[in-house]
Amino acid sequence: MKVTNTALATLMVLGTVTGAAADIKLGASLSASGPAAFLGDPEAKTLYMLVDDLNAKGGINGEKIELVIYDDGGDPNKARTFATRLVEDDEVVAIIGGSTTGTTMSILSVAEDEGIPFISLAGAIQIIDPVREYVFKTPHTDRMACEKIFTDMQNNGITNIGMISGTGGFGASMEAQCVEVAGNYGVEILVQETYSRQDADMTPQLTKIKSTEGVEAVLNPGFGQGPAIVTRNYAQLGIDLPLYQSHGVASDGFIELAGKEAAEGVRLPGTALLIADIMEEGDPQKEVVIAYKAAYEEEYGEAVSTFGGYAHDAFRLMTDAMTRAGSSDPSAIRDALEATSGLVGTTGTYTFSPNDHLGLDLSAFRMLEIRDGKWTSID
């Protein structure tokens, strides 16, 4: 089933897509509209595509999947309401979603209270640290992003940096994590600035960073339009220092929004999806990455994104667990999820345990740089 943008919007208003003779209800609350739509829209499209494909192949152990999905618009209060509706009214056996950290934290409280396995698509470390019984996630944590960036800085002899961070949930969380681990890599943060989602010009903050003696590079934890504005202002001010962004903007959309010239040389940790066309033969992720990229781009006629990849991995993890559990009982699915070992996704290879509900290590991140308007690997 082809789902156009218009049809997708209609489906999400209705809140459900039902396959013929659907037997297993899978829920989702995603930010398919609003300021985080660049996250939630490809996530929703990915789930629709994968459900259709799985059902066409016979479903799970002969049972079809019914996807019940709501658009929370990035609003944590709506996300909580939809999570409650998914459990109490729609009677789903598992939930995928939480495009942002804020919406994820609302959903996970419901999932934990109701005993429903939940896989988040957001980045903050507090989602899975401390470990919660029913909560898992697919993206690398913000702490891991800091560690990957600082490793690259360390390799390049950078010891003193400036930091400009978004004040939203993701930016604030990553800023805190970077501050906490910087010293482990011999990095000192000489100056820290922030911006809000409404800010349209970060020139004053960047001017202060530029004038701070000793700064050798700049790090920008954040997602959405803010990092693109930072990147444009950075170029306009002629700051001739390495600029590092977060995995929160790891998409072709960031290059388009920031502008090809301004984005030149920007570095960030990302996933294999961004370098699918140049992955080496024998890379364990290549087959999965190429297959998802080809299917998505054929289905929707638009470039695949890292964020859709998070939904792809969550769906594979959840349906693999359902298959191994041989049951649609939420507790059995949860137990099977926690026993996942060596499942290859677009983001990395997942191995969960009772003490690890992320299942990825730092090697799953790829250090990327924008060159001539394209992503290249610099690992």
Number of strands: 15
**What is the N-to-C succession of helices and strands?**
HEEHEHEHEEHEHEHEHEHHEHHHEEEE
- Measured between the Cα atoms of the first and last residue, the distance is 39 Å
> Biggest sheet, in brief?
6 strands, mixed
Descriptors:
Leu_Ile_Val-bd; disordered N terminus; transport; Peripla_BP_I; 379 residues; 42% helix; globular; 6-stranded mixed β-sheet; 2 domains; Rossmann fold; 4-stranded parallel β-sheet; alpha/beta
Walk me through this protein's architecture:
The chain has 379 residues and is α/β, with parallel strands linked by helices. It folds into two domains: 5-141 and 286-363, Rossmann fold (3-Layer(aba) Sandwich), CATH 3.40.50.2300; 142-276 and 365-377, 3-Layer(aba) Sandwich (Rossmann fold). 42% of the residues lie in helices and 18% in strands. The strands form four sheets. A six-stranded mixed β-sheet has the order 1-3-2-4-5-6, with helices on both faces. A four-stranded parallel β-sheet has the order 8-7-9-10, sandwiched between helices. Helix 6 (169-181) links the parallel strand 7 (160-166) and strand 8 (188-195). Helix 12 (306-325) crosses helix 13 (330-338). The longest helix is centred in the N-terminal third of the chain and has 20 residues, at 37-56. It is globular and about 65 Å long. It starts with a helix and ends with a strand.
